[in-house]
Design brief:
This protein has 16 helices and six strands. By secondary structure, the chain is α+β, with helices and mostly antiparallel strands. Strands 3-2-1-6-5-4 form a six-stranded antiparallel β-sheet. Helix 8 packs antiparallel against helix 9, helix 8 packs across helix 15 and helix 13 packs antiparallel against helix 14. The longest helix is centred in the N-terminal third of the chain and has 49 residues. The N terminus and C terminus are likely disordered.
Length: about 500
Amino acid sequence: MNNRFHFSIQKKILLLIFVALAIFGVVSAKLSYEYYLGATIEQHKRLGVSTSALVASVINADLVPNFIKNGEKASGYVETKRQLEIIRDSSPNIKYVYVYKILPDGCHVVFDLDTDETAAGKPGEVVEFDEAFDPYLPTLLKGGRIEPVISNDKFGWLLTVYTPVYDHDGTCQCYAAVDISMNHLRDDSNRYFKWLAKVFAGILACVLLLAAFMARRIITPINSMAKTTDGFLFDNEQALANNLQEIRKLNIRTGDEIENLYRAFVKMSNDSVKYVTDINRKNETINKMHTAFLITLADMVESRDENTGDHVRKTASYVKIILDELKREGVYTEQLTEKYIGDVVSSAPLHDVGKINVSDLILNKPGKLTDEEFEIMKTHTTAGGNIIASIIDKIPDSDYLLEAKNLAMYHHEKWNGKGYPAGLAGEDIPLSARVMAVADVFDALISDRCYKKGFPYDKAFSIIREERGKQFDPKIVDAFFAAEEQILEVADKFSENNKQETSV
């Protein structure tokens, strides 16, 4: 299994909770900050409005023209300025207090108080309009009221409140202005977010610990059940029984749905063991029947040919040895699976099944065949392929017979393309048939026939080696000689058996 992006259920649960809490935390922080900021600004507005109204209350509008003209020399100017200073100093959030008369050419200073950062304007001095007030100029020129204005410029982050001051005729003579500093909001916001982060981190840690505990309570029993199922991959009945015993030993008692799942799992496992055991036994019976069928069919054909003896059994053994050696050497690895080797070895006895269509007179002729007789003998390849093809058509799920068909049809093809019946060459010849070609010829060379005496092993080996790259696949010949000792063991075994049978 590819584990590159694999996460356990516990990790998924914790990740889900973490993401959910993170989203909740971000949204909550944003909403809390907006609420905090809105409430603080509203509080500053109330401070600015009340302070501006208080400033307006100490201004005698009828004296404003004289204040602008004569400044501190005007009667009442100094006393009024002192009152404005008292108002300014009443709160640390009050940054600036000033009184302007708004005219088309700018703001004419009536009162302006010095601060540590900014020198005050002189009475009658004209100050340019701040850009933040451009939208409100028409209203200000008419002496109307405007909403508090928030600006952020060289003077800082300020909330400005203008209150009109009217004379006894109801004419707006000037505006009492107050700037409330909001620079401290940045520091307050940082402190707020640090506090919020600590609270959120604590909550997150507690929730994740609780979630990890709960997830472990759920996942540990499930993992235990999953771990014990590995044995179900085994064909050994004892292993299956032991596995079921391990499942029962878990004895999960959580008192919830996990326990219900465990009980259902135990029942399913028990049923599965019975089912698998039954299937294994039936498969074993089918395999035995299949092997017996192939051997019986091969024996029926072999019994007609007085020359072949144990040919089908010996060649099947040689084929198994060669295929195992090829796999050990890492040759044709894509084809040489365990199933493929099993299918080929099981089907090997059928490679000469087509001889059932050849006359006994030709099969058992003691001398050399004529050209006409040899052409008839050659038809056993196509006949064998057709026989097995008809079996395949009638039996469902008979993939194992596909290699039997290849063996029967093509085991007389040659690597150089000069064989029969199709004249295939090289790797166009099925691998199973190329292996059988070596096994078939070797057995024919060393075996006694009514028309010849068997060759010595050295002579047979010499012929096989000479045909490497001509009649036979070079890689298969190399594997044949690499497993020479095993080949000779099989040959000697059958030779000894034949001697014993003859003596009896």
